[in-house]
Amino acid sequence: MPDPGWVFLEEFASFSDVRNATTATGVTSAGRPVTVSFELVHPPGVSRWSVHCPGLKKDRGFNGSPQILNAAGAFVVMRMLFFTGRGRTRVIDYFVYRAGPGKPTLHLVPGPCPKVQSPKQVGVVPARGAGGHYNVVFPVQRLDPRFELEIFVFDSETRAWSSRLAEFSQDEETTYDAVVLHTPTKAVAAGGGSLAWIDLWRGALLCEWRRDDGQPVLRLIQWPVPPPRGVPIDIASPVELRDATMSDGAIRFVELRLRSSGYGGRCACTSYFAREEATDDEHGWTASVWKRELGSGYGWGIGFKADTYNVFADDSRSRLVRRMRDEGGIDLNKMVTAGPVLSLQDEDVVYMEAKSGTDDPRDATALMLVINAREERLEAADEIPLHRRFSTFCQCTFSRFLGTSLAFL
């Protein structure tokens, strides 16, 4: 089987001394060596990664598990928290893993790094041109006398920091109030050296740097459908029902709408999936996928819809659905399916997590489903680690830069 051009990756690392072709070694801000390694599997399986810091105990030296913040191209930006000194002071180190060209490397982002509201706002952007350089972007809110966003950038080529206050784009979607309320859950590279912060309730905040003077300009791209009525969007997590991604000069957006009569066909907030009294029919949904070209004057266009009635039906086009039911005793209609993830490679594909409706981990099952939304067909399924919440994985393309000699598990 050829190496895939991308992988699903666990958001949080485990602590173990794994050595393979992906291993890279760096140095923490305290001068300790630290290694990062990946154990890669073909999607829809989920790959793992591990961190090892010789002489440092995970329950004493680390303050929680290292976390991947986001990835773009050959680069993965990650955060590690350490305790230092007798006072148990917490130190935050940011690292950039580079898969290639050449041997994988792990570089510490030199501090002090700016403080951000959420670590997932920190983004990495491949630099224009050759050379394998990158920029790490930290957005910092300024509230005096009014809301402003200061953009801090670390340039790996010059090894220098810079910062500028961002300007707002002059358009109908980018209003002051909308930008103030924007609360991103992830950052994604948007191509051409730009970055976007994704708030799955309110829209994508695109940050572009003008070529003539390097000024960062913010433009808000609102979603084709408003936030659902009756859902407290300031506290409800959208990742179980929505996803968005950017690639090839376009932004794509997917939303699930539940068939539950209790919600009147509207989106549900996270609490829906914890309800023990949910019936089989309430697990049904319709997924709608939209697309918008960033450089054109046109708005959103809906690509296609997929419904569980068709995807998981007994007479489904997918032989896999019938085989899973007949041979494995797995009825997807009786599993909670959520957490849509848009494919970076195929516009027709949406990945979904399916979990059995039980709170007993000994009886629980978790699957990653590959759904062709255009044809309403299940193409593949694979068992994945069981988590209490959905969308604990990220898509990364760094595996394509590791070389053909890399052996996947």
From TrEMBL:
Organism: Urochloa decumbens
Descriptive protein name: DUF1618 domain-containing protein
Domain of life, source organism: Eukaryota
Residue span, DUF1618 domain: 197-351
InterPro entries hit by this protein: DUF1618
